[in-house]
Design goal:
Length: 39
């Protein structure tokens, strides 16, 4: 049972890393797009 809990925690951590990375990339893209919009 402990192994299953560790697997679930590991998957949640991986999902959180992926989601936070995607969010950072989206924010960076939005900032670049808004800076280009000023031209």
């Amino acid at each position: 049972m402990l192994i299953l809990e560790w697997l679930i925690l590991g998957l949640l951590a991986i999902l959180y890393d992926i989601l936070s990375f995607c969010a950072v990339e989206n924010v960076r893209f939005a900032l670049d797009f808004s800076s280009f919009d000023g031209w």
